[in-house]
Amino acid sequence: MRHPRVLAIWSVMVMVGVLAAGAPRAEACSLAPLVEHEILEEERAVDTTPPEAVQGMTVSIKRGVGPTSSGCSQMASSCDDLGWIQLDPVGATDDRTEPAQLGFIIEKTAGTLPSGMRLPEGPVRAFEGLTLSWIDGATDDQEGFNFTLDVMPVDLAGNVGEAFSVRIRNAPEDMACTVGRMNNNSGLVWALLVVGLVALRRRWSVTG
Length: 208
Fold this sequence. Notes:
By secondary structure, this protein is an alpha+beta fold. The protein has one domain. The protein contains three helices and ten strands. It has helices at 4-22, 41-44, 172-178, and strands at residues 56-62, 68-70, 73-75, 82-90, 103-112, 124-125, 130-135, 145-154, 164-170, 191-195. A four-stranded antiparallel beta sheet has the order 7-4-1-10, with no helix packed on it. The chain has a four-stranded antiparallel beta sheet with strand order 6-5-8-9. It has a two-stranded antiparallel ribbon with strand order 2-3.
């Protein structure tokens, strides 16, 4: 027969284990920062031709989500409260600058950005897409958004190509139908949209 003190300690350990099993689990979350586009003075001296406009855009949307239940426990990650939109421009070319070395200017032309989202102030590189993030809240009850961005390619000389206009919409009814959780317990939610509206706007030169 176990000593009463031993039984008491064992009971406390069991309770701690149960509480720990039911606690949300946290996983590290990191987003690659946008990299500023470099303007080369030697290119500015010889290149005055702007890049060709973006020909297409893939838009990926991730919204904040609440914890998921798994038996007696809840699963969560440090990414759950993050929202982000990734733009993957395709088709932009230049006579002197390689596609991988092009930068992109992003400007809002209509609508309202998600609260807390900030657009880059200057041209940035699209090494693995152009990711715009904000704190969206760790909840499944999210407000929708609807806005339009212009995306313009920039070459190494600072010449700016014509704008590609993309409307980005994520309404509550869209989320109910198209957004689903992935099975890797990462808490990431992706809605894939393909857009193809080109708006020819303006050309100018970015000062380095």
